[in-house]
Amino acid sequence: MTPKNSGTTAAKRRPTDANIIPHQYKKGQSGNPKGRPKIQGMQELREAALAFLNEPAGKGSTRLYRLFLDMARTRGERKVLLEYAVGKVPTPISAAGDFSGVKAYIGISPDDWDEMTGGNGQESAAEADDEQ
Question: What is the per-residue pLDDT for 122?
């Protein structure tokens, strides 16, 4: 028995402009030109959810705050949940001590370098005089 495709080659099966099906995607064309369909009433749902969460829940707090406390019982869990929701707070660092042996590398764009050096890639004459 011989296979059904025994006489065909890969070159015969490749699509060309002449045999491309009209509804197939074209090169450079989006596969979903209209985008994801909008959910009807989503804005109203958001507004209703926010109104519900901002309602008082006793003891001077809102339902949102109570939900937050229920989700994160410990201080560490609350910190992680807040960092996930709104981003991590920058941690201040201190730079005190002897840095005489430390080399610092500063990233400078080519445009800034040209501006600082007068456009010739060398130190300006004024800077060279300052160093002497």
Answer: 56
Phi, psi of 56 (to 5 degrees): -60, 145
pLDDT of residue 11: 56
Q: Which of 107, 106, 110 is nearest to 121 (CA)?
A: 110
Please give the Cα distance from 59 to 74 (Å, whole number).
20
User: What are the average pLDDT values for consecutive 10-residue runs of the chain, which has 132 residues?
Assistant: 56 64 68 78 86 86 85 85 82 76 77 78 54 54
Kindly report the backbone phi and psi dihedral angles of residue 62, in degrees, each rounded to the nearest multiple of 5, phi listed first.
-105, 170
Gap between the Cα atoms of 17 and 26, Å rounded: 10
* β-bridge partners, 56: 62
Give the single-character DSSP code of 73. Answer: -
Residue recorded with tokens 């995607």: 25
Contact 68, 78 (CB under 8 A): yes
CA 111 to chain centre: 27
Q: Are 78 and 72 in contact (CB under 8 A)?
A: yes
Give residue limits of the domains in the chain: 41-89
pLDDT of residue 127: 56
Residue 21 pLDDT: 67
